Amino acid sequence: MTGTPLPARGCASDAPRTSPSATRRAAAPPARPRAGADPDDATLVRAAADDPDGPAFTELYRRHVHRIYGLGRRLLGDPALAEELVQETFVRFWRNADRYDPARGTVRALLTTIARSVAVDLWRRPSSRPLEPDDGYDRAAPGDAVDTMLVGLTVREALDHLSPAHREVLELSYPGDMTQAEIADRLGVPLGTVKTRTFHALKALRRTLLDAGMTP
Q1: CA gap 128, 78 in Å, rounded
Q2: Which of 42, 52, 51 shows the shortest CA–CA distance to 19?
Q3: 188: alpha, beta or left? (left if phi > 0; alpha if psi -120 to 50)
Q4: Which of 14, 22, 34, 75 has the most CB atoms less than 10 A away?
Q5: What is the average pLDDT score of the chain?
Q6: Is 195 exposed, middle or buried (0-12, 13-18, 19+ CB in 10 A)?
Q7: What domains, with CATH codes, occur in the chain?
Q8: Among residues 77, 109, 71, which one has the least CA distance to residue 93?
Q9: The predicted structure's pLDDT at residue 123
Q10: Phi and psi angles of residue 44, each rounded to the nearest 5 degrees, phi first
Q11: What pLDDT, on a 0 to 100 scale, did the predictor assign at position 27?
């Protein structure tokens, strides 16, 4: 690990609040938006690469820390390991900020990829588990398990961002294994409405998965 302080614990949301910046300085307050719209993530990464001591990295941390911490909690099942995952994810990200290419994916997708790698490293570390694996343990298994969990969490997160009406038709269509005609009858809406909601729900779901660096 890097030796940087772990993010602070005990806040109301259980998520780390301080930046794990490799600059070893106190976290600056979040960057204030300019007169126009807030800068997008790619703009902030460029600013962070040009000025590591500026506020851009802190703003990126503020935008993404809660999601990465939540992934860590779900993937590793331990608050302390989740904090370690957050720290290491952002340190690796900070070290390679100058290499970021927005044409290859979003910052969200890159952070998810880094967090996945960190989760596998932590999962494999003996001190992260109460018991050692059996002799027949497959070294590819941690990555497979993390990938499976990560896909499930991302899909669930994407569904949660849909409107209730759009989420409802998908939940009835797939886990419920109902036809669109049956869904229309269940909801008391025209079949055309169900088809329209399904189309837009799948489109939004696909966009969210792509933003997270996953291929639907």
Answers
A1: 9
A2: 52
A3: left
A4: 75
A5: 75
A6: middle
A7: 1-129 (1.10.1740.10), 142-216 (1.10.10.10)
A8: 109
A9: 80
A10: -65, -40
A11: 39
